[in-house]
């Protein structure tokens, strides 16, 4: 039995688990789903996927705090959960894994699974690592955009070396996990990198975008390095992004059918202020603006040239717009590229910056610092007027069209003994 542990505080991670559930069940696998709860658990309901809430139910407010505290955003001295929460979730997950007879657990950012799978004695597969994997920083490919202000004063070459050395050397965010691991007598988490890597970390990208040949990536081993758990392995599985089975509302259909260039603003897991700033910049570029409000209270932006909706099926919306603006989570980047739609990325943390840089290098995207969004109208206009961005995105689309990422991920999971 395959256990999917869904982190429903994130739209992207919830939707990825839905795609994996579909692919695994299509291959005849017995699949069970558990979650802590969270604002996007309704998507599991909408997809008709049964699930169990394990551990203390996560309220929408608690989920928002978890997102704010996550690696790259929150204080590095905390672990997203209190020790009591960690203990409760780990023990509840382990009990559930044993109870359902799981032989493999798969998660997208339910980080408590790093310990609960050890308690339950089952291997862990992660999908949330995306492109943020050891061969990337060992090649020095992480962008020099320093997440810590003090580093920004250093020369670029030195800054790049330090940024690429950090994941395997720092123990940010791990302290709480290791206190609970010691209490429960299970293997600790030796580094920030190890916190997000499973026994099998699925690299949900294609070699053409990541720039690392499949043979090299899949041959990587910890080789005795203390930064990693000894059994960690990597495998390409191709793009994995949301194909939400939700309709496009009639007022959005009408907006999409009207003439004029459209900028699609889909900034999930961000502040309402950032959404407002980007929407205003797009409007100032003489574009029509479609805002996926998700969890944001921005209904007052609705006007003749700005349309506000909630969660939208981006894979159906993006082919019909001229530019997408996201925070560059891998799922949203891949959705844009799979649709051949240029991307303006507003990354909020290092993993998102890497995702943005990968497609920016290919000519399909541009990056924008959150602090610069108020003056972004000129960049939006240039991207709308320059067809080279769309041609580059179409090239990436061709690579993605050749891979069924969800099915390949399912095959990788089912191949685990």
UniProtKB/TrEMBL annotation:
Residues 317-369 form the Glycosyl transferase family 28 C-terminal domain. Gene3D superfamilies: Glycogen Phosphorylase B. InterPro entries: Glyco_trans_28_C (IPR007235), Glycosyltransferase_28 (IPR050426). It comes from the Bacteria. One of its GO terms (molecular function) is hexosyltransferase activity. SUPFAM superfamilies: UDP-Glycosyltransferase/glycogen phosphorylase. This is Glycosyl transferase family 28 C-terminal domain-containing protein.
